[in-house]
Each structure stands twice: as C-alpha cells, then as structure tokens.
Amino acid sequence: MSTEDRPPAPRSLAEALRARGDAALGALLRSRPDLITPVPTDLTQLATRAGTRASVVRALERLDRFALQTAEALAVAADPATYGELLGLMAGDDADPAVVAALPHAVHLLREQALVWGDDDRLRLVRTARELLAPSPQHPSPTGLGPTVQEATAGMSPGRIQEIVAAAGLASTHDSVSAVTALTGLFTDRARMAALLADAPADSVEVLERLVWGPPYGQVTADPAPRLRWLLDRGLLLPTAPGTVVLPREVALHLRRGLAHRAPEPVPPVVETAAVHRPQVVDSAAAGQAYTALATVEELLKDWDEGGPAVLRAGGLSVRDLKRTAVALDVPEPAAAFWVELAYAAGLIASDGEADERYAATPAYDAWLEQPPAERWSRLVTAWLAATRTAGLVGGRDAKDRTLSALGPGLDRSAAPEVRHRVLALLAGLPEGAAPAAGPVLARLRWERPLRGDRREDDLRGRLAEWALSEAEQLGVTGRGALSAQGRALLGAPAAPAPGPEAEPSGPGDKLPVHHHHRPAPLAPLSPAEQAVASAAAARLLAPLLPEPLDHVLLQADLTAVAPGPLRRPLADMLGVLADVESKGGATVYRFTPGSVRRALDAGQAASDLHAFLAAHSRTPVPQPLAYLIDDVARRHGHLRVGAASAYVRCDDDAVLSEILADKRAAGLGLRRLAPTVLAAQTDPAGLLEGLRAMGFAPAAESAEGDVLITRALAHRTPPRTAPEPVPDGPPVPDDTLLAAALRAIRAGDLASTTPRKPGTGPAANGELPRTGAAETLATMQAAVLTGEALWIGYVNAEGAASQRVIAPIRVEGGFVTAYDHTADEVRTYPLHRITGVAELADDAG
C-alpha cells in the first residue's frame, strides 16, 4: 500500500477504536466486560471509560508477565515510540530471538485490550497506564529504571548544567535545553559512552553497577567521596533532592545493553511432569477418592440430622464445633472446614432460621441421597468449581483481625473459580496419567497473572492454586496428582495429548521424572448449560468405576459387624442406628453396644425386628453374644418411664427408684419421691433422660397418655434453601446476544455523534445535544420532509435518557415526526416535545 493510500494515523484512542471492525471491538468488550457496564453511548465514551484508572488497573492485572513487561517498557520509552525502539528495550543489543518472536503477539494483545494504540511507527501507551507504570520516587518502576536526564535536570541551575556538559567533554551551549539535549545524546551514543566509562575509576564503575538494575536512587553526603564526585561531575549521577542522587535512565540502559528488564520472560514456564501413572490407575484412584468424598459428606450430614451446631452471632461455626466435626469425621480441622463448606456450596446444609438458630440438612439433601452415587458426586464437584467461598481461609484473620470461621462471612474470594479452572486446565494439557509437581504449576500461574500475586502480601492466587490441587485430589477429580478421565470431562476438555516416548512409565512404580514441553491452548470456562452437559458426561464416566453397594455384612462374635464395601441405603441407614462405626476404610467395622441397641429401640424397633434384620442381612450366623445383648437391652428398655411433670420418672419396681435416689450422680437432677413408684425431677424430660442414661439405665420417654414416645432419625430439616451465589469477579463476560446489541448501540451512537453538521447549526461531536426552539425544530423537520435530507437530533426518552440520532424525516403531523432512524436502521416515530433540538448535516456527510 502506498503512502497516499494508507489511512491516516489515529490521533486518539477513540479514533483507533473507530477504525476497528466489529470482530476486533467484540474481542475488546469480551476481554474487558467492565467497558459495557453500562453500554457506552458511542466510541468516544468507550475510549474514555477504557482510560479510567479502575478499568486500566483491572486490564493490567489480567496481562501475562511478558505482555506486562512490554507495557512497562513502553512506559519508559519515548511517547510515542516506534516498534524498533520497543524491540530494543525488550530484546537488548543482543536481540534475544525468543523476545523477537514473542513481541508481536504481546503488542497485538496490548492493542486488543486498548492499552496501546497507534501504528508501529507511533505506539502510544494509554495515559493512565503510563502514569501507573512510569518511574517516580513514590512508585518505582518494575523495570528498576529512574528518570531521564531531562526529567532529572528539570530543577537544576543553568550554570550547574553547563559544568556537567564541560566535565563530560562536550562543548558548552547557550541554553540549558540544548545542553540537556547534548548530554542525552552522549548517554545514548554507545561508542562515546564506552569511551567515557573507559576512563572511569574502578570504584566509580562499581557504584554504577550497584544501581544499574534498581533501585536507581542512592544517598550521598554533603562532601561526596571522590568516586561519587567523578560520577556527579559528569552527570552519570544526578541530584534529585538534598542527599539523594539518581542514575539517569539513559545511563542505565547503556550499562544494561539496552534492556528495560533484567530478565524478559517471553515464554511461559514449562509445567514439568513429576510422575507418570497408567490412566487406569489414575481413574481408579480418583474413583476411590470420589467414593470417600460421598461417604464423608453423608457422614457429616447424618451427624447433623437432628440439628447441627449453633450459628454464631456473627455467623458461622464456632472453633469448638469445627473441632467436634473434625473428630466425628476423623479428619484434620482444615479438611473438616472444606467438607462443611462444600456441603453448604452444594445447598445441602443451611441455617434453620429458628430463634435458636442452628445448622441442619436442607430438603435438597434428601433428594440428593436418592440420586445414583455418580450423580451425587457430579453435583458436589460442579458446586466446587463455581464456588467463591474458600475453605482454606478458615482459621485466618480478616482485615479487622477477626477470626474467619467456617460457614461465616468473609470467605468469598472472587478469583477462586478462575484459579481452580486454570489449574485443572494445565493438568488437562499434560499427557494422560501425567502428574505435575506443584512448583511449576504455581510458577505458570504467576506468569499468567503476575500483578495479582505480586501485589498481595500473602500471594492469594498461589494459595488458591495449592488448595485447588489438594481439593481436586480429595474430590476425585484427580488421582495420584493426575487429571482423571472424569475430571477431563468435567472441564469439557478434548482427549489428552499422547505421551511421548520419554513419558512412558518405566516400571510397576509408574513414577518417572520427565519434562513436558507441550503448551496447551487455554480452556475457556463453560457456561452454566455447557457445564451441566460436561458434569453429566463426567458422572457417566465415573459410574462404572464406583463399587456396587452390598446388601450384607459379616457379623462376628466380638459384637462387631464388618461391611466389606459400601452398603445399600436401607441397610446402611438401619445399621447406622443399631451400631456405632468403629473404623472406616476399605471395609467398615461397626460395633454393637447397649447404647446403640437402645438407640434402635428408641426409634421404634422391637427386639424381634432387630433379630430378623440381622438374620436377613448377615452372611454369617447371628452370634449368641449379640442376640443376648439385644434381648437384655430390650428387657430393660422402657422399664423406667419419663414424662412431663416438670419431669417425672416412674417404675413398677420401687427398688430401682430407691437405687437411683441413692446414686450420687443423680444429685444434679433434683429428684424426690412422690410415691413408691414415682419420682419427680426439677430438670426437663430430655435432661432427665440424658442423666439416667449416663447412669447406665435405659429409660423410655412417654406421652401424656402414658404411651412410649418413639424418636426417629432424619427429623430436622431447614425450610427450602438455595445454595449461596458465587461472588462474581467483576462484570460477567457478555454473551453473543448482548455483545451484538451493545455493538449496534455503540455504532449507532457514534454515527450520531460524529456525523458532520453544517457550520453554526449546533455543537460538533462534543457530546452535547443540539438545542433549538420548538418553532425552529418543527420548521426544519417539515423542510427536511420536502428535501429528503437527513438531520441530527437530540432526543430524551420517557425514562429521561438522552441520546443523539441521525434521522431522515418522512412525515410530520399531530405532534409526532415519523422518520427513518439511521442509528437504529429502522423507521420510528418520535414525539416532537421530546426532541431537544435539530441540526442540519453537512453536504458531504456520509
């Protein structure tokens, strides 16, 4: 293309955006969705919003390390800079080939994000980004560079500048501007600078070497040492404040051989493979973890069936209740916090909302229990992927130094879903069965989002990634550290890349340190509908790997029962009432005790029912000690009756009541004899039942009519509750429909605001609406109907929103104008009283 045919260079970001096609504008709005919240009226407003501090900071935080380094280099380059100048700052005198190859993509990305605009011969960083990234004493540049010679000498006396010029071997000039220009020319001339530094004392060069990579500032006394005096005399160090000197940017760049960064990082860190396992081993291990996850959540909810822990006044679980839950689940406290938060995120537990507020299972838990195991797992992992609540923070402190509690406020971190997805996506890019080391994964994430981690004291993204790896293993998304087939399906990822020869396991241990050099294309997060399809596919892959539930146990003579695998639900529920879990693992051991048998009797079972149940579900004969235990507890069950007086206890055997009165452990119950067979108590019936059971008796509660009250499990449920909504990380990415509508609106508004007007007919393209009187508006409209000309109008709709439009009037009558609206590309009717004014368009308006 010749110079004459080339379109004029844009003079502003708005003009650069105006030259973009819809595809390029759509890419900008997808990557920076805050720019269309709300939809801007035209491209000028879009450019203004893209330059606001909040939006620029957000865009910078989402750059990878090399793109950010490129923006930082532009901030210390001339404004505007050429592509060649930028390449020199990034690749240095040696022209690093990796940087040369990667820089065009980085510049394209910055342009796409509207952080850089202009052609390659006039690259400009948006003003706000330059202010954020350019060096200053208060905010040092990440490059470690200081101010330019011109900036550092801005307050220096002309005489002192001339002294520096003379000491540097330059001819004196008539003014400070030309002197500073001459000094800058010296410092940017590699040959002359090399000659100047060749005469420098060795200790002076040592001073420069200490400052060259930053920080560029140093302290000097009122009487500097000779090595410093030599540098100050020649301007190689310049004073910025009393006692402070700085290394000028041009000098530093010469010493750095042109590099703005000590270590440019054009290529992302390789995610190294630490071990390789057979895919079948990975899937089986993940399935085992998935089964354990389901069992743990069920055990947690069963423990809270009749009302869980109390809700703290500020919300959440107390430290004591979390410890008790950890003991009940036989897991560490951080793991207990994770399972509690996972059940909450899946909508299986919530607070009951009563006056004495407690946590309990929701009605959704009962529906969840009825689903097949693979579908129950799918619901848990889908909730985990999208949850912003972060269990790893439990036990830490918030900004006000308050302890963060499980299920309490302050646990939402909007970056958590993105980090989880990205961690799993990196695993999906490895060969099947390959498990990465945690270090390279964290290094890769820090390269992809450097600012967000570097600016936090505790590197939140790094901790989120570590938690994601651990939680994925606990849930069975990964097995032995490698992504399972069901985990891959959960992401909607394609088939894994085939492992190379170096990735083959070398023996039965299946562990071989290799380095994986494949760089996968990033996997985009799925929409809710796509995620539902992916989760269903993951459940189908997992289902055949889960063990089939059993309908039997093995009873043993030591009052235990062994379940060699998962049990079918009716059997598991009944056995959970009749016996206590003694140990878990591949096989679960249940122990029968007087208390557990009494629990089954309290739930309405008769001794004959228990004998029949055990005989039906045991592959071994019912041991005699177990049969005796059931009969003995049943014989004594209900012998004592407790009712409401405040509370009373009655028994046909007055000797038993006398035994209770004589027992010192009954002192706290406030018992006194009302009749030979009746004792009254000062405590309530529940407390009396508890106290007598602690003393070794087996009392039964009775109603006012004297009937035994049967207590059944699964009694307490919250009202219907919805799962907590994730806290979004900024505005959502617009879908295709919203994006198309936003582009149409922006283009339409831009057409109205930029169409040329005739001189003297109103403000031009400055955002103001045209203003004319009612008579002039009507006359101009009527004239345009006759001539067929288009007009520029200001219009205020019924909601009070103002806009500019280009219309071609067709008919004016009854206080309305019917016109073809060029901005909306359709015929519309407008009330004349809502038109603020009208202006004629220039004759050459397109």
Automatic annotation (TrEMBL):
It comes from the Bacteria. InterPro entries: WYL_dom, XPB/Ssl2_N. Keywords: ATP-binding, Helicase, Hydrolase, Nucleotide-binding, Sugar transport, Transport. Residues 492-522, 750-770 are annotated as: Disordered. Residues 553-675 form the Helicase XPB/Ssl2 N-terminal domain. One of its GO terms (molecular function) is helicase activity. Residues 776-838 form the WYL domain. The keyword tRNA-binding does not apply. Signal peptide: none annotated. This is Helicase C-terminal domain-containing protein. It comes from Streptomyces violaceochromogenes. The lineage of its organism: Bacteria, Bacillati, Actinomycetota, Actinomycetes, Kitasatosporales.
